[in-house]
Structures
1.
Amino acid sequence: MTDVPTTDEFWRWPATKLARAIAVGEVSSREVVASHVERIEAVNPKLNALVDVRPDEALAAAKVADDMVAAGVELGPLHGLPIAVKINSDQAGYATSNGVVAFADEIAEKDSVHVGIMRRSGAVFLGRSNSPAFSYRWFATNDLYGRTINPWSAAHTPGGSSGGASSAVASGMVPLAQGNDIGGSIRYPAHACGIVGLRPSVGRLAHSLYPPGQDQALSTQVMAVDGPLARSVDDVRLFYAGMAAFTDPRDPFHAHGASAPALPKNPRRVGLLRDVGAKAPSAVVNQSLDTAAERLRAAGYEVDEIELPLLEEAWRLWYLLAMEEFRVIMPLVEQIGDEGMKKAAAAYYSCAADWWGEAPGLVDYMNGYARRGTLISELGQFLQDYPIVLLPASAEEVFEQDADISSLERGREVVAAQWMNMAIPLLGFPALTVPTGVANGLPTGVSLLGRRFDEESILDAGTVIESGTGILTPIDPR
């Protein structure tokens, strides 16, 4: 075959191409994994995106995958592909450290729901991706493993909390990485590193974030999701299919195989939302939105400027419901968390106090959840007229490292710039982040918000936007 490269080039291939080649025996999983191991050895010392990499285990798993191909057995969507797992997800035999020194030896006895599903889909796990302590910042640094670097710029964040995942994918260490998102932790890292990230509808993919015997906070149950990060929309589709292939009774909210809602009257109508009053988008962000809108119009989409103030309310409401629940573990954070997490939390609570007071009570909390249901209904109705909303991935360009803790004032600006990253999880709808280009040496991008259980519509629109950008990664660290 003329298009099969030497082993050291497999790390450049798209996941979709690798999956097809492995499935038909054109290349071996072992060759593919070996190529990615070499890439990790070359760039991970500079980026610190992956921790606890065990090449021998990965190569042994790849050999099993190759034996299955040779035996002609039925293969899963992710068969033989190297994939990174986030350090806040249980992977049997590995520490679920969540970036906390005190949890460094918390070895998982069994896979979490989503890790088990990826394994059943054929994934070969190659390294654990770094995150901030407690996975609660848009910056990937902690006292246990140190700082993860953005391959585009060491001075800027790779995003968080799935920042190790985004840096690893963008630099070619793995073609696919798993992340989770309760406040932009898939979408923002994808944006920061110039790749694609999908936050599915709540209930679309089975997942779990806490070990057996621990109760999940209500906000985690109804807002958090797991999802894929990859270098292209097609690769995200592949990973999404692999994560959707199986169910697990441990997830009480999983709606396996839930069908998309009936097509609206105008399925190609897009609402362009620039601002909800939290923070005006920068010139670069506005240009990214204009670029995406132009590409969608050229492909036959109708794009109208809209206002959607309910998302501003949802953004503020997140800081009541999620942060009041997080307050329960703040004594633990104060005891074992790192200084970065403590300072970031101070900025979050400072903003929350502006809206909800210093000590919201039970009635505030109950009324907040009641209001959440109303906002979900209102957004669902709005999306009947505009089934896709085009909006910023952040109101600012990629943040400088530690922007959230450089000062309380700057931390509050970061919170305001990320309004969309809280509003969407609070309501449980799907969203996709896709690159639009490069400005000032950093990737630019936009987000697409869609109807619940209608991931396909935003993936289709993302493909259109991506077609004008091209695939920006993998890149060497700069």
Note: The radius of gyration is 21 Å.
2.
Amino acid sequence: MRSLIALALIPLVAACASGPSYTVPSSRPANSAPVPPQEPQIQPQTGFRAPRIMDAPGLDGVIGTDASGLVRQFGSPRLDVWEGDARKLQFTGNACVLDVFLYPTAPGRGETATWVEARRGTDGRDVDRAACIAALRRR
């Protein structure tokens, strides 16, 4: 029985043993003077990350427009969804469904449209964004 206890203790004792020690070579020559630590450069941390802004033909008057400007163009949105500081407005018509994504483009500024997606309302297949915008403006 004592031999079983001794065998069981071997892994515990081995775990306590120190491993090999390593020395990291110094990057400065042995005869140079030590360099005093520098003051850390403090950068303001806002946590703001600028959104990617869509740039495509036919999106004039949508990209860069705020929510009230979009409502003036397309009428009341079917959906108005907030997630954090991001907002999605969804406009619908017979021709298509237009999702407009609004994000703040600078710290402390309001949300503006930075991205759009367009699809058919019947089967959800992608449609040309510019054509969808034009169709929704005409209704």
Note: Residues 21-28, 35-43 have pLDDT under 50 and may be disordered.
